[in-house]
Amino acid sequence: LLRALSAARPPEELGALLCNLSQAPEGRETLLDRSGEAVRRMLALVRRPEAEMRRGVVGALRNCCFQHEHHEWLLGPEVDALPSLLLPLAGPEELPEHEMEQLPVELQYLPAEQRREEEPDIRRMLLEALLLVRRGN
Question: What residue stretches are annotated with the Protein HGH1 N-terminal domain (predicted)?
């Protein structure tokens, strides 16, 4: 699974497999292994051009957020999942300087070509993941 996640072109079915795997508590625990390899690799796939891959990976990440005991680790410096979950929701709008400085560095001064996630289902799952990690803290 880790090899497939690391491949230059991961198999199309990988997103759906991860989403299905993460529906079971055992699957979530495996993906949330403290080495962080699987989670970091999934976070890297959130911006893939293939909608099916993004949908599956974001679904898996959202499902992993149901494990409240992992929230601090997911948001902490070891994984730092917040920028990866927020970036697809961000647009190119300019914000006042004081607001810009409050954002994670990865979300500051985005280029004009930055676009929000186009797929409504994926945006919804990203928001659900953010709500889950917020409620758990």
Answer: 14-123
The string over 89-101, giving b where at least 16 C-beta atoms fall within 10 Å of a residue's C-beta and e elsewhere, is: ebeeeeeeeeeee
For residue 42, the enclosing domain spans: 1-135
CATH number at residue 11: 1.25.10
- CA distances to 63, 68, 87, 88, 114 from 107, rounded to whole Å, are 24, 25, 6, 10, 10
- CA-derived radius of gyration, the chain: 15
Count of alpha carbons within 13 Å of 47, Cβ hemisphere only? 14
The pLDDT-based confidence of 134 (bands split at 50, 70, 90) is confident
Tally of structural domains, the chain:
1
DSSP labels, 53-102 = HHHHHHHHHHHHTT-GGGHHHHHSTTT-HHHHHHGGG--S----HHHHTT
38-69 pLDDT per residue, tens: 999 999 999 999 999 999 999 999 999 999 99
